């Protein structure tokens, strides 16, 4: 099964076209134009990666990133921006964003980063499972 | 009325507007880029035996045309704004200027979750002034209002001729209500108002800010 991705950008025409291209590459894509809706979906669904626009009405990408990381600290978030400033990039990375991509984007770059996000997620899940098993082994007296 | 009065503040205003415009253009390019990419995908799929869907092609063509129209509007606004520094004194239509400033500020007001609206005006409201300085002081008004407004607010704007004076009224500013200490005009507005021979009146109770421009030559 392909990577499960949530695309968040207030430019409806942009996410529709990008979403269709990602689906053409075998990904399972959901889209939303609202950061608040994205946060709601993160609570309800599991995603391999979220592609999130940095500047949106209601709530900007940095605020949305903070909220997402609070709900799911391991969530892999790739930020999209019209103009990447060094300051914004550093701020996003400090908050746990996986990467920052400048618009217009290259689909192969995004696809590559999403694959990396899925791999990161698998590593994190395996690490957590390993820790759980180790904890059980050390606490139980078998 | 030279630009010296604005100095760094004027340059910052010019830079802010141009940066915002470039951001909007980037968004347009991003949509066109993804739709061009979709066309490439369809061609690759057709080469692998998936027939082309004329409806999908038509949809892409429509999207591209829409974005070209959108970019054309953005660039027209940028061009008008850029030419506002051509002459230091010019007779202008304040309604036109106000409409341009609303368009240039739309991305910012969207970010604040509010909007500006202007009623219909049939006759031009003319004044002899420095077009760039006027745009700058209008931007300061809009910027202050965006910071005062609440999410979902729509602030109305009316341009009125009052004898020789021109009044730009901003009303329905919910954030002004109940404010006992509004620091408007601040230093940045005061410098421009002096140069434009204008004044700024704040009516907290009515939720209204009025920019009054004296039409008499200095």
List the helices and strands and how they pair.
The complex is a heterodimer of chains A (142) and B (218).
Chain A: E1 4-8, H1 12-24, E2 28-32, H2 35-44, E3 49-53, H3 61-71, E4 77-81, H4 86-94, E5 99-102, H5 107-139
Parallel strand pairs in A: 1-2, 1-3, 3-4, 4-5
Chain B: H1 7-47, H2 54-82, E1 90-93, H3 94-111, E2 115-118, E3 126-129, H4 131-148, E4 154-162, E5 165-171, H5 187-196, E6 198-203, E7 208-213
What is the percentage of strand-forming residues of chain B? 15-25%
The largest contact between protein chains, plus residue counts on each side, is: A-B, 20 and 24 residues
> What's the shape of chain A?
globular
Secondary-structure-based class of chain B equals alpha+beta
Mean of pLDDT of chain A: 90
Question: What are the low-pLDDT stretches of chain B, counting only 5+ consecutive residues below 50?
Answer: none
Radius of gyration of chain A: 16 Å
Distance between the termini of chain B: 9 Å
Strands of the largest sheet of chain B, in order across it?
2-4-5-7-6
Specify the helix fraction band of chain A: 40-55%
Count of alpha/pi helices of chain B:
5
SSE pattern of chain A: EHEHEHEHEH
Question: What does this protein structure show overall?
Answer:
Chain A is globular, with a radius of gyration of 16 Å. Chain A contains five helices and five strands. By secondary structure, chain A is an alpha/beta fold. Chain A is 54% helix and 17% strand. Chain B is an alpha+beta fold and 218 residues long. In chain B, the strands form two sheets. In chain B, strands 2-4-5-7-6 form a five-stranded mixed β-sheet, covered by helices on one side. Chain B has a two-stranded antiparallel sheet with strand order 1-3. The model of chain B has no long low-confidence stretch (mean pLDDT 91). Classes of the chains: A alpha/beta (142), B alpha+beta (218). The interface between A and B is medium-sized, with 20 and 24 residues.
């Amino acid at each position: 099964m392909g990577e499960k991705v949530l695309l968040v950008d207030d430019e409806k025409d942009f996410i529709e076209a990008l979403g269709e291209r990602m689906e053409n590459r075998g990904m399972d894509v959901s889209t939303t134009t609202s950061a608040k809706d994205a946060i709601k979906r993160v609570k309800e669904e599991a995603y391999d990666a979220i592609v999130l626009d940095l500047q949106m009405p209601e709530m900007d990408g940095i605020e949305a990133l903070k909220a997402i990381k609070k709900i799911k600290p391991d969530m892999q978030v790739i930020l999209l921006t019209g103009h990447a400033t060094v300051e914004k990039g550093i701020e996003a990375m400090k908050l746990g964003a996986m990467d920052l991509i400048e618009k217009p984007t290259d689909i192969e770059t995004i696809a590559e980063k999403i694959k990396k996000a899925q791999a990161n997620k698998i590593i994190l899940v395996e690490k957590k499972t390993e820790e759980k098993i180790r904890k059980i082994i050390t606490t139980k007296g078998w | 009325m030279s630009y010296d009065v604005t100095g760094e503040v004027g340059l910052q205003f010019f830079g802010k507007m141009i940066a915002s415009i470039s951001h909007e253009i980037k968004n347009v390019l991003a949509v066109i880029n993804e739709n061009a990419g979709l066309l490439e995908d369809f061609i690759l799929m057709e080469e692998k035996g998936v027939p082309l869907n004329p409806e999908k092609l038509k949809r892409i063509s429509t999207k591209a045309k829409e974005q070209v129209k959108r970019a054309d509007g953005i660039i027209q606004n940028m061009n008008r704004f850029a030419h506002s520094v051509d002459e230091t004194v010019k007779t202008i239509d304040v309604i036109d200027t106000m409409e341009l400033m609303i368009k240039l500020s739309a991305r910012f007001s969207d970010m604040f979750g509010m909007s500006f609206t202007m009623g219909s005006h049939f006759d031009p409201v003319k004044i002899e002034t420095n077009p760039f300085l006027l745009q700058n002081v209008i931007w300061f008004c809009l910027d202050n209002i965006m910071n005062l407004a609440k999410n979902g607010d729509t602030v109305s704007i009316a341009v009125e001729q009052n004898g020789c004076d021109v009044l730009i009224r901003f009303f329905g500013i919910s954030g002004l209500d109940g404010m006992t200490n509004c620091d408007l005009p601040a230093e940045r507005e005061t410098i421009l108002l002096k140069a434009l021979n204008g004044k700024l009146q704040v009516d907290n109770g009515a939720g209204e800010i009025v920019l009054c421009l004296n039409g008499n030559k200095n």
